[in-house]
Amino acid sequence: MPGLDIEAEVSVLALIQDSQIHKEQMKSKKMKRRDTELDPLILAAAFASGPHVTRHHHSHDLFPAVADPLAEGAWDWTKWTGQDAPAGKQDPKRRSYHSQQAPRRQRLKDLGLPVDPEPQVEIATSPTDLKPPSLQTQIRSPRTSISSETVTNERLGLPPLDDVQVKCMARTRIPTPHGPAFLHLYHNNKDNKEHLAIVIDPAQLEESSQTSNIPAIRSRSLDAEWSPNETTMERITRGAYVGKLSPNQHTASVPPSVSTASSRTRQAVPPALVRIHSECFTGETIGSMRCDCGEQLDEAIRQISQPIVKPSSNSTTSRPIIVPGRGVVVYLRQEGRGIGLLSKIRAYNLQDLGHDTVTANILLGHGADERKYDIAGAILRDLGFGEGVNGEAVRLLTNNPDKVEALEKEGLKVVERVPMVPKSWTVHQQQHDSVTIIQPGTEDGIVPGLFVAQESSRTVRGPDLDKYLRTKVLRMGHMLPLLGHGV
Ligand SMILES: Nc1nc2c(ncn2[C@@H]2O[C@H](COP(=O)(O)OP(=O)(O)OP(=O)(O)O)[C@@H](O)[C@H]2O)c(=O)[nH]1
User: Fold this and answer.
1) Is the shortest distance between the CB of 187 and ligand 1 below 6 Å?
2) I want to staple 108 with a disulfide (CB 3.0 to 4.6 A). Which of 113, 174, 306, 462 is the partner?
3) Does the global pTM surpass 0.80?
4) Superfamily (CATH H level) for 166-334+371-420
């Protein structure tokens, strides 16, 4: 071996021999090699340079100024000056790399076929016969967010449509620990997220005359006729039915009319209790105790499901009538106050370094709160709230002043704000009355050992949660009294 002394050569040969023996042993034992046979970097380079590159790399020339990439020495990048060869000196044999997966327009051009005058705008992926005509062109597939109206408007030189359109794609009954709920899945023309509405209105499952004059919380877009050819079974399958579904009972709903809308004014029950809740994977799915989101979601469903005491309409009986609770949780896919799960996870690390939730967001280049509530407003309007002068008002379950303001801007009437008090605080307050939970001056303002035992699996507590709640109150203006803090 040139350049190696005898000793080095012997060791290299010994290594090669060892490796061959090892290979033979592995083969005979039929064991899988643990070391890679090919250098992954070489593989990556080969994949990136061949004609099999993706359509996105179609016109990339990965070897500019290299006349023949297969010629010996052509791969020597140390000789490349960073410039392509001057035009006159370019070798006619120069190889260029053409992707087999060129974009359609490029392939048509290469074949000499006419190219479409304008890119096709894709409409929603769901079957067209399942869309109501009014929304058909506005509900988009996840890949495109431009409606055909927008495109038409652009062609006509008009500004694009800005109003949020939502459509309930499906509804089903979900039994919860607090009672039955109807889960509604929405599509919209603003983002590609599937926002949800958890409607609690068990009176819809009953045939009771007591609740017949209380308006049912139903989605207009779901109950609409999506196509003249739509079958009863198609309507029922997407959730446009009344009452409870069973093998013996299945009645499709009728499309909403003006009369059903105005019947909302004839109610004698308090306005529906509504919560706008933002997604929190950590708190709701893995039970994180950094926040109380899971507990809040559970508590909101519980509170909305509480029966309503209604004064008797019959003057001869003085006994009040108890009707099932009614309301909605609009579940928005705005993880991490709109910054997304990735950034939220990073924000947690910054929080562990001592920053609060607001500063952590800002350090990552985000706003303290990036959420919007226009889709929530549209969903609530679809469910019959706030439309027209007689539209039903709501009682909003929140401590967040932004949500009240946003819903009012959306044309909804918020007649009452119902606070969401963290369960650990309530239980603590009940048990210790005026004992201070949060004390300035202690580390993180936490008094160790003062937190009460968990009331249920959904009751969270601990120093991380405490810091999170304090930041909400002290930096985000949440309307929650900090116990012992004089706020
Ligand atoms: N960026 C960030 N987001 C968080 C953190 N902890 C929880 N969140 C998110 O905060 C949001 C909580 O939203 P909501 O449950 O609607 O409650 P809220 O707006 O705080 O106000 P309330 O209605 O009073 O409960 C969810 O999107 C959570 O994912 C955190 O430490 N950092």
Assistant:
1) no
2) 113
3) no
4) GTP cyclohydrolase II (3.40.50.10990)
